[in-house]
Records
---
Amino acid sequence: MIGSADGASLRTDVLVIGGGAAGAFAALAARERGYEVTVVRRAWGATALSSGAADVAPDPQALPGLPLGGRQSILDAAAQLALRRPDHPYAILRERLFLLPEALAFASAQTSGVLAFGAPEEENRLLLSPLGLLKPAAGGLDSIAAGDLLRAGGTVGIVGFDRIPLIDAPLLARAAEEAVALAGLDLRAVGIECDFFRHQEDPLLRPHELAERLERDPERLIESVRRALPQEAIALLLFPPLLSRVDAGEMIRGLQEGLGIRCAELPAGRQSLPGIRLQRALEARLQQAGIRIVAGEVFVDPALGPAPVPEAVAGLVSPAGPALSTFVPPHVPAEGGGFTALPPPRPPADALAAYVRAAMEGGLRLRGSEPSILPAARFDPSAGRFPPPAAQGQPIEAQAVILATGKFIGGGVRREGLLREPIFDLPIWVRGRIDGGRWLGDWTAHELRDEQHAMRAGVRIDEGLRPLLPDEGTASDRLFACGGVLAGNDPAQDGAGIGLAVFTGYLAGVAAADRIAGGGGRG
Amino acid sequence: MSAWIRGNLYLGWRAVVVHPLRRIFGKTLRGKASFLRNYGPEGLVPTPLGDKAMLAAAGRCISCGLCDQLDGQLGQVARSTYDGVSLLPRQYARSSVELLHAREAIEAIDPEAYREAEAICPTRVPLVALAIWLKDRLGRSREGGARG
């Protein structure tokens, strides 16, 4: 059961803020070491929207015309990503990349195989994306990871449902054949359209509604697929990711037994049921492990005063001047040919360090997660700061805090005039410098596949996963960060999404446990 | 006297004498009443500060579709009438003019049934309050239309 803020003081050894993959594995790692752990999460985040595939690092030599690249091991691919991008969390943690196999094995074991990863010394699995492209992934939900084309060994059947336009099986099969030909794989793909939903009145049912109907009548699904099977032998059947709302394992086993063919699911696109399954599996595992989950938001006690404002930002906003959010960029060409609205800020590192320390020493509060109707907090130019939350909240006492709040979707990074980390006001780094309200157009590119710097915005850490202040000193030796909130990673570009969350989450959980074991009580 | 001069004299008479006298002694509608008389028939209603705050809150929706998957009312109301709670922030909140066309859905939904969907919304869109507000706004749109 998910708890809520109840007014009493919340005492815990490790406080994890954020309940996605990174937060869950951080919590489980600390719990495994015997500590009392509480996860506070606002809502579901990007994990619930994930495709069900889990990337660690793609092969760096893979190209659109050569999708399999150099067929390197997952571990080597991660090491090469660290070399290629010096600001990437893998690069910062390069001395500890040897722990990646341990972290992945931990994730598989903790989820009882719901999240399955290949051995890091093996190459990535090759999954078929919903768009017919080849997607390398280290693993994923077991029902999806089983759809590895490298191990298909024959003709792959792609199952669709006539009258349901969600997956066009013949089209996907044609795209898959082109893709595997480029990869040099000896595979054939055929589209198989079964009639399970032929008498369905509404062709626009949502994925969860389709899954509910499939779960209700698995025998009819087997019969329907059997009728549609072609004459030739099928080695692997790939189903749309609709086989279950909770756990597709049982459905897959039933299909395999009924059809006598190996079965798997495709990774999901929008409205991902596998993402929801993963989120639910993680929450169930947290509760099973005795970890308390609380729906709420953590904030710093307003009595500690305002978060220190970067000098450059405060200087540019006069008491009578406009709020940053309405600041019009003067279009002064900046270094590198871009345009800048504000010069790089020089925040007072000492003041910020004192603020974070005070927050960590009894200054954290918890409030309920009722959504606010009021607009997001705006920079108050007369006060020179963002307004503090009105609620007093429930005091939190924790020996270590892990920030696993995600990026833009999870709420770990917000743009309110400038990019902010909303709990501790930690500096947000983009492209090697701290954001000071730069025009967002500088951080984004027109072409989707071009470098999107905004997606790399986040909190910078040291090799101990402790967030860094503007002077590159650590904010607190009891505060750790992991997952999407980290600077330098763009999951879409780098192909390190849930894998990075698992790795950094595991390390953060271990680091928090080690910190408590090493001494230093509650603040 | 040419038509041009006569026309201008008439306009001048209206502007300098008739219109000011009407404003002083006549029964002209002002403010909200005038707004509703002019725009009410089209379904436009005044947007007070509370409405603006709610519109901004609805604007937080990123169309991820998570809420639809926990919407217990999806399928209970005819699909042609109602296609998921994400329509509330994405479409129904956008225009009071179009709101009248969605009246069947808005009348049918129960705001309290959105608690579970609201609790998982990544961007914290207040779905329950939004549904209550839409019902109220629909009433105001109708009222405005009737007055017009």
---
Amino acid sequence: MSDQDTAIGAPAKRKEDRRFLTGEGRYTDDIDLHGQVYAYFLRSPHAHARINGIDTSEAMNAPGVLAIFTGEDLAADGVGGLPCGWEITDVNGEPMKEPPHPPLAQGKVRYVGDHVAVVIAESYYQAKDAAELVDVDYDMLDAVVSPADALEPGKPLVHDDIPNNQCYVWELGDRGAVDDAFDKAAHVTRLDLVNNRLIPNALEPRAAVANYSKGEDQYTLYTTSQNPHVIRLLMSAFVLNLPEHKVRVVAPDVGGGFGSKIFHYAEEAVLTWASRKVGRPIKWTAERVESFLSDAHGRDHVTHAELALDENGKFLAMRVDTKANMGAYLSTFASSVPTILYATLLAGQYTTPAIHCQVTAAFTNTSPVDAYRGAGRPEATYVVERLVSAAGREMGLDQAEIRRRNFIPKDAFPYQTPVALNYDVGDYDATLTEAMKVADVDGFDARRQEALRRGRYRGLGYSTYIEACGLAPSNIAGALGARAGLYEAGEIRLHPTGKVTVFTGSHSHGQGHETTFAQIVSDRLGLPFDDVEVVHGDTDRIAFGMGTYGSRSLAVGGSALMKALDKVIDKSRKIAAHMLEASEADIEYADGVFKVAGTDKSITTAEIAFSAYVPHNYPLEELEPGLDESAFYDPTNFTYPAGSHICEVEVDPETGKVQVVNFTAVDDFGNVINPMIVEGQVHGGLAQGIGQALLEGCVYDPESGQLVTGTYMDYTMPRADDLPSFKVGTKNTPCTHNPLGVKGCGEAGAIGSPPAVIDAIIDALAPLGVTNLDMPATPARVWEAINKAGATRAA
Amino acid sequence: MKVSMTVNGKAASADVEPRTLLVEYLRDHLELTGTHVGCDTGQCGACTVHLDGRAVKACSVLAGQAEGAEVTTIEGLANGSEELHPMQAAFREYHGLQCGFCTPGMVMAAVDLVKTHPGASDETIREQLEGNICRCTGYENIVRAVKAGAASMGGQ
């Protein structure tokens, strides 16, 4: 039995840890089915080429080969394209350009790693060897990889019928009001910003095992997914045209996602389809290079941004023009990331009265780009916070002061921003004040002087960010073009012995739902934590779900469980009234005990559960046996986690090497169920945000379109010795519109941190004349900035 | 070709293709799926096991090279005990794992680190874990766990 405090708010140790620590975790690649064969995907070596023909005859004769399929085979069988779940409307009123996305290429390949054919053989090595014998006749075409380039006239067209590679132009906000405000501004800050393209790199490569059972006419797909129900829906309804009740999708233990495992990928559909054709279970596991090439990437914005201020440093208006890279095809949520999840966050924590944002989305010869930890919100935060910090420097205002002059005051909530969102609650000054205390801002000058004596430059960078989480109110999402509702489902099943199984449509791939959700259920029902089991990730066991992304699991999935718990308690009250021969109105409930008010007559949840399944004397016309309740929860608003990050760096001017010496994050996540898990989520997010700022950057060769950063030799993942020890804390204001008062914490670290790091470096190097710097701030880039600034000053 | 070795204290042998890696032998032939594969280039460290008492990346060793060797994987670390090894227990105590995918390799590397660097400082722990990538934890709690695990291992 558990000997630890597991109440809501306690740092309970995780239920899932034992299996992970003993090698008993069960990830997709750990699953072998009887008679299983293996798939290898032949991928395009070219960024852009016409396929004149594919000759598989020699490969078909290779040892062990069972089948080879190409795009033509899929088309002949009526297999559809991979769908995009969010329709963005262009400023011209037309829907976005939505090119077909065949699971295996038809006619053309459009990025290095695009799927050309699948080879299925008795062993993986046989499939891989045979793939080398597939003869593809390509006509190479010129490629375009950056969004700014792709939108220029006369550039190669990724899709022949989409002019200028333009997917859509979209805007939000009042352009006229913004123009007027800029006309009256005392000061305007202007920045050109690049939000560097990232490759998510969950440590578990994507994998799938598909099986068609002829006897049951049933498909089963095991896959590395954050949302198995969504995969089943998309694959059944749009790609393979299968009856959904004949398709089971299981996402077992999943080794990290960070967004990259939200999407419905080609391999999932092809394997499911092919398992019936071949009559055998088929397994595919990505090699890391395939993850680099074909997982959906993140970010990749080029932005010009302007902030208008009055003479007191008060923000008057913001103007943002962004070019966003969609990659070669529209991935599942790609279109929503640089629009709905981006421009709506440009108010940040501030009272900026007028904001206008225009986004132009471009197709390029690169892997599809979609949501990656934070999805749109890190990009927005980077724009807002870089502008604010630059404005502070330009106007000679202290970084905390310029922020405080513009914060939405804590008594102004609910606060309607000029970019659609309505913030429910927050106290931005509280997190900033606390962060400054923890970061010892008062002692910074002394540390800066001490560093200078050693020939090092120290700087402080601030980021006071906001995010919109808990995706999403379906009403709002639908009005903005979402083709799905974004509620969550949950079910609480009490067993006769008083044990509980909790079914959630959320999915845990590191977040610890099996622990956090069990704490909630155990606390609410007054049953032991160890008697509560949380089940997730299987469409056959959980009625429905929308999965885990956008820091939504607790705010939306947890709320669905709270609704189901209310139903369980309501019914238990009825059962208690019957058993205690009292009126339902007289039954009081607290801590697992139902009591007749003013008496010592009581009964426990566990006793009620037993009775519910042994209803020997129930008044059956009034009271149904059983104790198993489910609920769907659709939020009424987003949640708005916010916080203050302060980064302190030391720069070696000789080498350009940046060391993060202190990093402080004080966040407002609303109520916290398990502070240990929350802190861990912040740490991980910070590592990814600092990784983006200093180390990570996806590079495609602009001429050939080859992925230059395609291994861990070339793409710099943050290692233990790249990162500082983090100081994290919370100053929470409970969310006002969900039953737990929670906001979500999964993405905050990655959203808030990048501008804090970059502005810390700029602050450090300001005495040398450095005023701007792009991510990742590698030693070469920092060294170059120092030397350029020096040369400019000398000239 | 036939390879034989001792894995987690038990004799094991199998017929494998010569190009079979130690990690493939463990996962595919012995069904010891606790050892994970996170990359193809020897960088991520998810496949770290002990070969004759030293931490190695099992993706960078051919099964044939381990002929006759003693191999310990995460499944064998606690020596068949129901109790967790002190390092495993410390990772749980300090929340040094999230998705669990890098964890077996990280724990095996950490146990080796304690032997090669007794009393290691935070900085040394960070340097020594440079060959094991974790995408979830930001390493903060891994460092805390390794320190605590080292203490409860008695610096062995």
